[in-house]
Amino acid sequence: xxxxxxxxxxxxxxxxxxxxxxxxxxxxxxxxHYGRLDLVVRKSEGVWLTNIQGxxxxxCLAAYSAANQGHHHPRIVQAVVNALQGNYGSVIxxxxxxxxxxxxLRKLANMIPQLGPRFGNNGNKVLPKNGGxxxxxxxLKFARYYGFKAKGIPDGMQEIIVFDNNFHGRMITTxxxxxxxxxxxxxGPLTPGFKSxxxxxxxxxQKALTKNTCGILVEPMQGEGGMYQPPDGFLRGLREIAxxxxxxxxxxxxxxxxxxxxxxxxxEHENVIxxxxxxxxxxxxxxxxxxAFVTNTKLMDLVFQPGSxxxxxxxxxLACVAGIAALDVIVDEALPARSxxxxxxxxxxxxxxxxxxxxxKEVRGRGLFIxxxxxxxxxxxxxxxxxxxxxLANDSHGHTIRISPPLIINENEIDYLIxxxxxxxVN
Length: 427
Ligand SMILES: Cc1ncc(COP(=O)(O)O)c(C=O)c1O
Fold this sequence. Notes:
- The structure is a single chain.
- The chain has two domains: 33-69 and 357-425, Alpha-Beta Complex (Aspartate Aminotransferase, domain 1), CATH 3.90.1150; 82-332, Aspartate Aminotransferase, domain 2, CATH 3.40.640.
- 38% of the residues lie in helices and 16% in strands.
- It is built from 15 helices and 15 strands.
- The protein has helices spanning 2-9, 19-29, 62-65, 74-85, 99-111, 132-149, 172-176, 181-184, 202-208, 234-244, 297-303, 317-332, 335-356, 379-388, 411-425, and strands at residues 43-45, 48-50, 56-59, 124-129, 159-163, 194-197, 213-218, 248-252, 276-279, 291-296, 360-366, 369-374, 391-392, 394-396, 400-403.
- The protein has a seven-stranded mixed beta sheet with strand order 4-10-9-8-7-5-6, with helices on both faces.
- β1 (43-45) and β2 form a beta hairpin.
- α4 (74-85) packs antiparallel against α12 (317-332).
- Residues 1-9 have low confidence and may be disordered.
- Residues 64, 131-133, 136, 167-169, 219, 223-224, 252, 254-255, 280 line the site of pyridoxal-5'-phosphate.
């Protein structure tokens, strides 16, 4: 009864309670699966987060690239509000069509260069899901089925090459081929069929090939693994190996795609076209879960037929409405170019700080995807200090501070961030 009364009293559909209560509720009633920072966010707008006391925090995490367009981008919000107010948004079923899904699928398929070009200029097709890891799983099914159907690998014997330090999500299969022990220890039995080799090492890929290899899954730049850019020519080398051995080359662009590294898609830096790509996060502008696996029409039709895949919410109208607006914002506001330009300015200033800091080991990154590796290996300590100064950032793989703000950040906001980084890193 109490709960019902509180909800009726509240403007937002739930009660406003002090921060310490929220921490207590979440810690007592929620799983402890994130090492959280003590910040309760009441509002997010553009590049800023606000707590209940009105304290402002520059968001330099952007929900791991989900908020590339900035929080609550008015165009995306308006599209979603219109849909809801028009009684258009709730999940129906994928056995019928919706105009939002049709428009979204077409926009995304056409926006991406022809994938798997060696299979012909057939256009791309999109298979939509919700969280990113679901689309990673779709891509693994895709590569395995291609191996079985097109290459004649006995079913159950297919192998996929992945890379040390990879991060592709948290479900059983994706943790099975993680090389980070804490992600998988105790969660066995693990899914077989993967070989992990050193990121950036083409010889190691060559050596890992067997007659049962059907695909290669790679992040064009590693985010969670420590913000690493592969050596020049690595993606091109993978393309050559894949072509020579008839393998599906799949790029996971969930974190580094959609403008983050200064290009619409990270693989454009090397101009290497994969057979399939995986997108998520900013695909819906950070408002709803939406992810997708995209490939050449011929390949998609070879692998997926009625009954071989599905998802209740995957591609439901509200997510697609957000997706259409989110893609429009990236294109109309030229966010990839903005990321390249602001990233250049920010990186130069960070490099300048690094030159005067006794704490920084290395600065890495592209566009607005910048990693600052610290010598003592404990990036989270620096992130806690940054939070006290009004900046939200977190670590990547323990040793690196990840700086990945919404792509709409401006020069004044960059100066705000630089002032705080200076305080934390130079002393
Ligand atoms: C490269 C990459 N792949 C997959 C995922 C998993 O996405 P999600 O958390 O939406 O399942 C992530 C999440 O950070 C990621 O960075």
